[in-house]
């Protein structure tokens, strides 16, 4: 594993946001949802595609806070332009478990 320094880490904008919209994404190659995540005033609302259908339903995702990278360049994923990368971990079965704050924090807070 390559080491990074503090300046490298500071380049990554990991921020918390609240999922405000969840839609099915039938055009995706692997099962996924289309998300809109509110990162507060400074960053705003960003769209993302997330392959998280194994453990989450649209209902359980709505209003959930997540940690995402918000400073990647936009990436075309099928018919949508993904504007952030929602983060998570693979469990032992290969399903994605979202990285989430332990308690509610203001949208847009940066991971330190």
UniProtKB/TrEMBL annotation:
Protein name (Swiss-Prot/TrEMBL): tRNA-binding protein
Positions of the TRNA-binding domain: 8-112
Domain of life: Bacteria
Gene3D superfamilies listed in its UniProt record: Nucleic acid-binding proteins
Keywords: RNA-binding, tRNA-binding
CDD domains named in the record: tRNA_bind_CsaA
InterPro entries recorded: CsaA, NA-bd_OB-fold, tRNA-bd_dom, Tyrosine-tRNA_ligase_regulator
TM ranges: none
GO molecular function: tRNA binding
